[in-house]
Amino acid sequence: MICTSLQNKTFEQILEILEDPAVEMAEIRLDRCPLTDDQIEELFSESDTPLIATCRIAESASEQEAERRLRLAIEAGARFADLEIEAPAQVSKRFQHLCRKSGTEIIRSYHNYEQTPDAEGLQMALARCFRYGADIAKIVTTCHTAEDATRIESLYSLVLEDVDSLQGRLIAFGMGEEGRSTRLECLRRGAPFTYAALTEEEATAPGQWSVAEMSGTLYGGRTPYRAEGRTMPASKSFAQRAILAAALAEGTSHLSGYSPCGDSEAALKVAQELGATVRRDGSKLTVTGIGARCGQLGLERLDTGESGLLTRLSIPVLAAVGRGNFTVEGHGTLPTRPLGSAADIMAAFGVLLGNASERDGKEIYVPVSVKGQLIPGTADVPGKGGSQLISGLLMALPLCEKDSLLHVSEPKSIPYMYITLDVLRHFGIQTRSEMEGDAELLEADDWSACSGISFRIRGRQRYRSADFAIEGDWSAAANFLVAGAIFGSAELLGMDTKSLQADLTVIDILVEAGAVVSQMEDGTVCARKAPLEAFRQDLNNAPDLFPIIAVLAAFCAGESRISGVGRLASKESNRAEAILQMLLQMGVEAHIAGDDLVVLGESLSARILNGRLLKGGDYTSRHDHRMVMALKVASLGAESPIVIDDEACVGKSFPEFRL
User: Which CATH architecture is the domain 236-469 placed in?
Assistant: First the structure.
């Protein structure tokens, strides 16, 4: 990335400059810009552009004034703050403490305006930067010869004690004409960003490039990605549950915010097969339900399309409201995906599952034969296979004549269980739940600490009609937000930032990776390009994010680890295998280690300069809608077009998908 150094600018001029899409990030020289305290606070709190607060002590009225202006910027929300390593010890300590408290990344800088020290002197300066708290070390010296430039570039090959890797953590370049090339070379070697002047006349040091020249050399004809004012489709996780609940309810329900996709359309057909009446008017659905009772229906067959969720919701529900034996059918990739532990879980409630067509082995697949009615009671069931069948039980057991206690051990995809409870609450069904595990971590919403969940379900309940607004889909939104964070910017409208959807965690992932993410009260969410760094993330509770987060990791400097590979085998494709094959075909270093996908990423700038943009060519989606969307985002950073064998499968969740 290119950081524009701004000096001698008024508040109004700075705001105007930051509106320019060509300005990716900016350094605000607080020692040289005539800004009031209020203007500093507004600038660093309101700007969506990543900003560096710099206030050199030597150029300020006093040491105290430099520290005060830096403090104002940091407390207002500066993304980075730069303090020279010559700063007094007490100033340095207060600076580090304040940055850590505020979440501001620390740049400790060394400047030598006279020469480039020998190799030992450079290494000592670099070590001091990290010893004094640097997240990023900045080493800038004056180069008089080509040997000076070579010596400062050699810093990138160092291995330092107590510093895991310099990848993304070092910015080293030279001043003067002999150092001019190092200002671009540093990006190739892994610097998170480099500095450029707004214009040639406004260079802050000899040899500094202008933004226009640097951008033209780095990006050539590549244009930044922009997605403005996009509206996401309805969350099919909410839509399918709400449609099924409305079909079971007594009376007429009104569902707003609906958008059609393959899985949600299949849910509407299931509702009609159950006997509900469905009318649609644009994005509004009117569903007159059947007032479901146990043993009410005599259905022998039910078609759930290609939806694994709808299949697992429907099996317990029809086992409760049906009169006995039935078969659940499907098409597309659904018959190739095993139902996992469904047979054991349903057997705990007196229902037997078997293959309706001849299959080798013990795995159960669609079409599935279902025998017996749902018997309420107490059961301990495994949750490591996912939440979908458990959600089906949570929808079905309240209709039974007696109470039930459902204990789920080793639960995965926990947020989806609570989406089910939220939908049920809107339709008049009450269920109590209690999590087990580390109470302190659970209180902080760290659901990885959950070892089990108990659901107390009162029987003899009835679904009541409701007016229900279906949320926008965070799994779809993730693709645009990642594209914006890597390649430019994205603005999405009408998103619920307090959603129970597991894929809302994409916001946390992007923030951890260093992207600029802003959320507004009206539901507008924006992601903007910024220096990206490696991250660690557990996606056991949000496995649908895996493909697009793997693409994100490919553009984050360093080694990222994404946990939850074991959850991916029975998706629309063997997603773990599909993702790894995709990355390797693109030329990304990646492997699977236990339950982790390990990705060695590089910044977009480094990939461009090193000739390591993602490889284009023919790719297979494996008929997986989420792989199609991830491949489309990856194509923005490819050296040549990416051709996908089956793009139509994206209609399963997002028929109107386009970047």
Answer: Alpha-beta prism (3.65)
